[in-house]
Amino acid sequence: MDLNDVRAARELLEGVTETTPMAHSRWLSSRTGQDVFLKAENLQRTGSFKIRGAYVRIARLSAQERARGVVAASAGNHAQGVALAASLLGIRSTIFMPVGAALPKVAATESYGADIRFHGSGVTEALVPAREFAERTGAVLIHPFDHEDIIAGQGTLGLEVLEQCPDVRTILVPLGGGGLAAGVALLRSERPDLRIIGVQAEDAAAYPASIAAGHPVATAMGVTMADGISVAQPGDIPFEILASLLDEVRTVSEESLSRALLSLLERAKLLVEPAGAAAVAAVLERPDDFEGPVVAVLSGGNIDALVLLDVIRHGLAAAGRFLNFRVRIGDRPGELMRLLSDLAHMQVNVLNVNHDRASESLRVRQVDVDIQVATRGAQHRAEVGTRLTELGYELV
Prior knowledge:
This protein is α/β, with parallel strands linked by helices. It contains 16 helices and 14 strands. The strands form three sheets. Strands 1-2-10-7-8-9 form a six-stranded mixed sheet. Strands 5-4-3-6 form a four-stranded parallel sheet, with helices on both faces. Strands 12-13-11-14 form a four-stranded antiparallel sheet.
């Protein structure tokens, strides 16, 4: 494959996909000392880059293949991309989703006309009946990343990056199975000066072991909020491309992912899913490592509202904006009011208060109070702890 395959894919996508915006980030630029831009693919149709590859793959099916329909297994983004692409092309689609898939993603996939069936607890398990369905009915299985048409379609994002930031030197791409990163890495056939970096969640990173082995190998996946890039084994085709064109694979912590998502909300006014924030997480972890201009790809923005609440709480805690402490006070009228008044003077917001009168270490007329407060950040949190001690409170 080369960039000509990507250009041909772009012609197919004309009028189908959006040319998503590129936003200059003053906040990240000041952190890195380089110009940093955000490629907002979270604003793409269906909320992620997946429609690019899915449409190219399905549009190139023969008339006989189209008549048999398509099938896929996905928990969200690929499901929506396949369903919309099939709908636009007048083709039946069947999507196998894990039991318990996020309701907004199920509803969105269904709204594009897909026949949804549920199986298993994850995509790997859902893929089993999807393959059986393809064998039984003749429907074409649309793989999420291991096909040249998929890679060519995803690579059209890279062409847009070059047009929107012609002097780009570093592109950071969230990395799961490898379809998007492989498509973007094809830019190096004409821009060898580019540095392409794939970013994975450190608890679910298959590429480092595969690169060390020299071929795709299955890796045990840990738990990560970035489910969109939690893929146990790289695809054969993207791995072959990335083995020669990818400069580096970075892994990022769960804390960095949640901080990046929260910062994108607060500073860039952009809503992304945890996998979509991976590139920004890498910039925040090592801000001095990248030659600019830098482009961080925000690969998707499909996140369930309940998951978003959990990630925001996690991000606030990781950023030092929560403080949990236990203080021992006298069990007399007015003591709790005095403590809360002192906290108010410290400009913290009390989130939760719990009394414990049953501890064996308590003396008569004493009570332990567990308090959770919101602070302005790590420095403010440290100042609150110091001030409580200065005021004579006994921190347990």
